[in-house]
Fold each of these.
Amino acid sequence: LGAIIESKVMVVHGGLFETKMVTVDAIQSINRICEPPSSGIMHDILWADPQSSQGRAFNHDRGGGLLFGPDVTKEFLNLNDLDIIIRSHQVRDEGFSVEHGGRLITVFSAPNYCDTMGNKGAIVQFKAPSKKPEFLQFSVSPHPNVPPMAHMRTFQKLRAKL
């Protein structure tokens, strides 16, 4: 569901939690061998998104899920003695964004998402000795002239013979 880097950086897909006082130990105790539930810690860590305003709110843009504010980020990081959260669940025009006073980073590595968004992709690196986040941005590469799902044709022909 996530990873902790150097005891200070938490990496997740989504974000933080509707429930207050969630600890890294509570996250580690979750049974991950299941379908993701429609609510709770596992759901939020997979699907929650940040907001600029304080507190927690329903995510109307997605029609469900949680939005969490800078105060929620600060509370979670302080409780768990962490410095930064890195997440990836949202397209960012420049491939990344730094929010919540520099303590929340969204990094999105798929440029021109779904061939429609026109966004850059990015990765984040932490280089010694500063261990501060550095970003590498990139643009989309041209698609090869291959029809969609062409790689499956050989498989489909083989399967038809069986």
Note: The chain has a mean pLDDT of 93.
Amino acid sequence: KVSAPDQISVLTALSACAVTENYDLANEVLQLARKGSLGRNAPPNEQMYNLVLTACSDPVQAKSLIREMRLTRRRRVGVVPPSLQTFTRAMVVCRKAKDLTSALELLEKSWHDGIKPDVYLYSSVIWTAAAVGDCNRAYFLIEEMKQNSCKPTIVS
């Protein structure tokens, strides 16, 4: 008898997908976990979503994963809301794709979800603004950081 995979084996497989940036396979594994096809010992969790985001290179897909996580709050079981780390990983996707609009949208959603952005989240958006040449937006974000008691660092 072959036993179903556990959390560790699923996370290991997703880590391999993240390292190789194989989003399609990572997302397929996540969807199998969501459907319960991997067994009761491997329900979706935040780590799984974060690893799929690490494999992702498309801001539309990253926003879709965040939306999926946000929608889990409507269920009584299997709730996996996005965290500060999740939003930061999605921001990295936006930065790599030079998609400032998506980065700003995700920043707004983090506030809406009650997640106070930290220096890493802000820095990802600032780097995205710099990557697209929007110096005014980068400056505005630094000022917003200060107003929200988030001290800019040499990195931001």
Note: The chain is about 65% helix and 0% strand.
